[in-house]
Amino acid sequence: MECRDQEEPLARTLAALVPGAVEGLIREVLIIDTGSSDQSWRVAEAAGCTFLRDADAVAVLSRARSDWVFLIEPGARPLAGWIDRFCDHMATSRQPARLTPGGDRLSAIARLRRPKRGMRYGLLMPREQVMAGLKRGESLAGFSRRVRARKLACAIAPAEA
Prior knowledge:
- There is one protein chain.
- Helix 1 (7-22) runs parallel beside helix 2 (40-46).
- Helices cover 37% and strands 20% of the residues.
- The chain is of the alpha/beta class.
- The radius of gyration is 15 Å and the shape is globular.
- The chain is built from seven helices and eight strands.
- The chain has one domain (2-157): Alpha-Beta Complex (Spore Coat Polysaccharide Biosynthesis Protein SpsA, Chain A), CATH 3.90.550.10.
- Helix 2 links the parallel strand 2 and strand 3 (50-53).
């Protein structure tokens, strides 16, 4: 996850990921800070996350302990059923996947008009594929915009624009 001055959104996302940690699905959370002046680091530290300032995403992901990574924006929250869907997908596919929109109060037209963000619906992907495609110095959001992914049958409440 990348963040910059997103203390409250970061806390919401980390709270939503706790059930995945309890189930053993999430082993670690790596947060790349891109210049925060708020208390984002305290939120990450309190949640047991690794908080890295101005780190290169390639270097960060090379130290990840899992074979799969889930890229998500601070403020986004996977909704009910996500743990089972992730487990099913990881057991049966090596294809990148995004969650489907849910909990989004915008109309369909408003959703189409808002700016595209690469991680709006998260991205679940084998770490080796991320490492093969991520360019040194590239943001996770920039990388995510380039990835073609299937949709998982579980929803995510995207971060506020």
